[in-house]
Write a structure and sequence with these properties.
By secondary structure, the chain is of the alpha/beta class. Helices cover 41% and strands 26% of the residues.
């Protein structure tokens, strides 16, 4: 985890300047998510980066807690939120397991472009379920590294060796859906805008 934190701290300002690669897909993901959100909801986003998505969703809910392992990322996020005058969003540094978060205290949890970066996605999904209220939703967008062709898998390995890419878990869509189902979620919606990632809305089963 320390290595990941250092990587994202070093990458924070470059990450903040990077444009969204596919604006149309990003806007569709926002729209799908906001169709579920309610004004009285309390939402958690883990792996929030510089907070851009959390800030967009803040207008649609009562409160958002946004977390990340990178202090540098969160410095940028807090500055952006202050400039936008958002009072219902707060940022905390840490992980799902290290932060003192109350069980069954969130109506929705967002894990966007983060599950494939975790050493133990099974433990993360189990923790998400624990934090959700009954019938709460988990929204995730995940890179399907296992489904990339050999060239890209080798390229990622080389970039990691050079210190230019973070750790990635080689998840497939089938494995991810099975992970969610086995953890006690019902997959309500899955959308694969391209071969390389899948967007899923899953509901906590009773």
């Amino acid at each position: 985890m320390k290595g990941s934190q250092e990587f994202w701290d070093k990458s924070a300002h470059r990450y903040a300047r990077s444009p969204i690669r596919d604006e149309r897909t990003y806007q569709e993901k926002l729209a799908i998510t906001q169709a579920y959100l309610r004004p009285d909801w309390r939402v958690l986003e883990f792996g929030c980066g510089t907070g851009s998505t959390a800030m967009i969703h803040a207008a649609h809910v009562r409160q958002i807690i946004a977390t990340d392992i990178s202090g540098k990322m969160l410095e940028i996020a807090r500055s952006k939120a202050r400039s936008a005058g958002l009072a219902n969003i707060s940022f905390q540094q840490g992980t799902l397991t290290s932060l003192d978060l109350e069980a069954e205290s969130f109506d929705a949890v967002l894990g966007l472009n983060v599950l494939h970066l975790l050493d133990d996605p099974d433990a993360a999904v189990a923790r998400v379920r624990e934090l959700l209220k009954p019938d709460g939703i988990f929204v995730s967008s995940t890179a399907l590294v296992a489904e990339l062709n050999l060239f890209w898998r080798l390229a990622i390995a080389l970039l990691q060796w050079l210190g230019l890419a973070p750790y990635v878990n080689r998840l497939s869509k089938q494995a991810l859906v099975a992970l969610l189902t086995n953890a006690g979620f019902s997959v309500e919606r899955q959308w694969q805008p391209g071969k390389e990632s899948v967007f899923i809305v899953a509901r906590k089963c009773s």
